[in-house]
Write a structure and sequence with these properties.
6-stranded mixed sheet; alpha/beta; globular; Lambda Exonuclease, Chain A; 8-stranded parallel sheet; Rossmann fold; Fumarase C, Chain B, domain 1; binds iron/sulfur cluster
């Protein structure tokens, strides 16, 4: 019996006909017009007997494979004497530049549709038409061919044959993978407390195709407890792939470690990690154009060979593995990792590859999504991250700069940049000196101006006509595109926020409630598992992350005993107006604490300003009150906002146990040291949390508060208290990391004695 390969026409032909180079300029322009109004405009000109969006499918046997191919052709025209398959392609470029009679990949797609229709309906021959549309001028150019059924059949067979080596490799791998999963036992001797519960709930959620919101504390092995059941679900045929989504690199490394560990136990799984383009780029400057980067030049000519090679020889494809193969095949490591993601069983990456409409994977078809699960680690971070993804802003300064740069070089570019700059000048006049304005209506005029600018920028970029301002033009073009795209999402969950200063004007389409858009972006996936040690209160996170009524929740208790942790609440006001007065008592308290029990401590603050102020007071006090060379004479580290990755690593490496000396790290809540940091045993024996973590009072936060108040919810909690307390829980969560850890947690703020805040503390911190 043949093995069946289910694949869409587009996927198949794109694989076979890939060629050429990466070009950030053209990519931006090409992808913009996918399935746009231009298609609909052409389709509206069809006659009564013509059909649009016609679904076609066919089975094609090649060697031992059976390709089950399907797709949707743009038009089926009832032309005489032959029916015509019409394939529409839109472009912002010049139609005269289309060489020959259209592009091979477009012909391949149209010929496939023609074959499938002819086969299903017994047609002896078909007409095949490519319709190219210029999006601005609405100009059209058509190319037509005729082919007999035999010719079509021969053609599609040849194309499928070219895909076969990849499909065969995939089949072979899937068999080996499933066999290895069948033999894979839980990779530890025993389940830790809570681990079986979480793993079982993840499996059940995947089985039933629902979302799971799991509060799973530190120490239960969340990564294994979510990946293992997902892998088992894959072995049972429920999943083809899962994404392990994270907000930071450290948690990505934990996922890789779990997969590597299971590989040692016999698992054969293709897993790929996606590293941000700026980090993994081989070049000094990220400039993805063939003239500037050899890894971009001819990328698509070499990529299929590179993918086959790495999949043949590797399983867990971490950053160094990808880099090695990228160098070997001279392909861009970032684009390579994206291409590999389409072929992998597991993808470890940032949230935005799924949820951000600007960069999410575009070639994921409905069938594939139905067999994919999303495992969202540290899901509490997704609320604010989603707000960023769905918001967009424009500022005046780059348009003024473009206006100056393009003057005399590109008339349309100059005019449209000037129009936006003038719009901002007018806004400033209207504001009458107010530092900010808010609107509930979409600024349609600015959207139209941004569209005109984007179109002119495309022409200037395509013609290389931007003088020395090419980089800025591309950035401004992306900002305009993002703004246009976001304007299409604008509804009553958004507000327009305008900030006016002497030097600039900023207009932001600010997404207040991301829940609906998160739902839309996550639509079609079989299951979502949102988990975090601090998904609390869970009702808030379910609301913000777009939960439905049938979704599950799970709260796994801490595996550690209460005796491991001493919690001290110090009733002191850390409110903004009391901060000056609080510095000295806090500094004294830290010294006393370290005097009683020398060792390594972290003190977390709600802001850099507050942290620096207490740091200075502490240093002065320490100088005259702590004898030098004693165990409580701590080495002191101070977090800075601009620390490099190496500096951060060095900061954390200083936290070593067993030295007999003391160490104190001053850091901010919500920063790199207060989440995802694992300092077990004596590496950390105490944490001091100053304040209740509330975000700074500000216009944007107040907008959130007002919006949620208007929704009948507690706006202050949604905007301030819940996000703030989450940071507290994360910071305090650094302390007890294993069954043998012991530590002291000091919470400094009088609000910790109030019932409302007490209820937000974990069970083991109360009382
Ligand atoms: S290596 Fe860097 S510059 Fe070259 S294509 Fe990749 S990301 Fe762009």
């Amino acid at each position: 019996m043949n093995d069946t390969v289910t694949i869409s026409v587009r996927h198949l032909v794109e694989y076979v006909f890939l060629s050429g180079s990466i070009d950030a300029r053209l990519n931006a322009i090409d992808t913009m017009h996918e399935g746009t109004r231009a298609h609909q405009r052409v389709q509206r000109t069809y006659g009564e007997q013509d059909l649009k969006e016609v679904y076609v499918k066919a089975d094609i046997a090649v060697d031992d494979l059976l390709f089950a191919v399907d797709g949707r052709c743009d038009g089926l025209l009832g032309t005489e004497p032959l029916l015509t398959v019409d394939e529409i392609k839109s472009t912002g470029g010049d139609l005269e530049q289309i060489t020959g009679d259209g592009y091979p990949v477009h012909w391949a797609q149209a010929l496939f549709y023609a074959y499938m229709y002819a086969k299903e309906h017994g047609q002896a021959a078909m007409r095949v038409q490519l319709t190219y549309v210029q999006t601005e001028t609405e100009e059209e150019r058509r190319f037509v061919r005729e082919a007999s059924f035999t010719e079509l059949e021969q053609y599609v067979h040849e194309i499928a044959l070219r895909y076969a080596p990849y499909a065969q490799q995939r089949r072979k791998h899937e068999q080996a993978r499933n066999e290895s999963i069948r033999g894979l036992a839980f990779p530890f001797e025993t389940y830790r407390a809570g681990q079986r519960k979480l793993a079982g709930a993840v499996y059940k959620s995947i089985e039933e195709g629902v979302r799971l919101f799991a509060k799973a504390p530190t120490g239960i092995g969340k990564t294994i407890s979510t990946t293992f059941p997902a892998i088992k679900a894959m072995g049972a045929g429920m999943l083809q792939r899962f994404y392990y989504l994270t907000a930071r690199t450290t948690t990505r490394a934990a996922a890789e470690d779990a997969l590597l560990f299971m590989r040692e136990k016999g698992l054969n799984l293709h897993a790929v990690t996606i590293t941000a383009k700026e980090k993994i780029c081989f070049q000094e400057e990220v400039r993805c154009e063939k003239e500037h980067c050899p890894y971009a030049d001819g990328y698509y000519d070499r990529i299929n060979g590179a993918v086959l090679d790495i999949l043949e020889h590797e399983t867990v494809m971490t950053r160094p593995v990808i880099e090695a193969y990228a160098r070997k095949h001279l392909v861009c490591p970032f684009e390579f990792s994206l291409d590999l993601a389409y072929a992998a069983d597991a993808v470890v990456c940032d949230y935005n590859y799924i949820f951000d409409p600007r960069i999410s994977f575009k070639r994921q078809y409905a069938e594939m999504k139905k067999r994919t699960a999303l495992l969202v680690d540290e899901a509490h971070n997704l609320v604010d991250r989603a707000r960023e993804m769905f918001s967009a802003e424009l500022t005046k300064a780059p348009f003024l700069a473009m206006q100056r740069k393009l003057k005399g070089l590109h008339g349309e570019g100059y005019r449209t940049a000037k129009a936006i700059n003038d719009y901002f000048i007018a806004l400033r006049k209207q504001s009458d000196g107010a530092p900010h304005l808010t609107l509930r209506q979409l600024p349609e005029e600015l959207v139209a101006l941004a569209e005109a600018f984007a179109s002119a920028a495309e022409q200037a970029l395509a013609a290389g006509n931007s003088g020395s301002g090419g980089g800025l033009l591309l950035d401004t073009y992306f900002a305009a595109q993002n703004f246009i795209r976001t304007s299409k999402l604008f509804d009553d969950r958004y507000v327009v926020y305008i900030e006016l200063s002497k030097n600039d004007v900023r207009l932001k389409l600010y997404c207040l409630d991301p829940s609906l858009l998160l739902r839309q972006m996550g639509k079609g996936y079989r299951s979502h598992v949102y988990f975090s040690a601090t998904l609390s209160p869970v009702s808030y996170y379910m609301d913000m992350l777009g939960a439905g009524e049938d979704d599950y929740t799970l709260a796994v208790p801490s595996p550690f005993s209460k005796e491991q942790l001493d919690v001290v609440i110090k009733s002191l006001s850390t409110r903004y107006h009391d901060r000056d007065e609080s510095k000295l008592p806090i500094a004294k308290l830290i010294i006393e604490l370290m005097d009683k029990r020398p060792g390594n401590y972290f003190a977390f603050f709600p802001s850099y300003a507050y942290m620096n102020a207490v740091y200075e007071t502490y240093m002065e006090l320490k100088e005259w009150s702590v004898p030098a060379g004693t165990a409580s004479d701590a080495e002191v580290l101070l977090q800075r906002p601009d620390m490099s990755e190496e500096e951060r690593d060095r900061f954390l490496e200083t936290f070593q146990g067993g030295s007999g000396k003391s160490l104190l790290g001053f850091a901010v809540m919500g920063g790199v040291f207060s989440e995802g940091v694992d300092l077990a045993g004596d590496r950390l024996i105490g944490v001091i949390v100053v304040g209740v973590g509330l975000p700074q009072l500000g216009v944007e936060r107040n907008m959130l508060k007002d919006y949620f108040n208007g929704q009948g919810k507690s706006g202050y909690d949604y905007a301030y208290v819940f996000p703030g307390m989450n940071k507290v829980l994360q910071a305090g969560g650094r302390l007890i990391r294993s069954e043998t850890d012991r530590g002291t947690l000091v919470l400094i703020d009088d609000r910790y004695l109030q019932g409302h805040y007490q209820r937000l503390l974990p069970e083991e911190w109360r009382g």
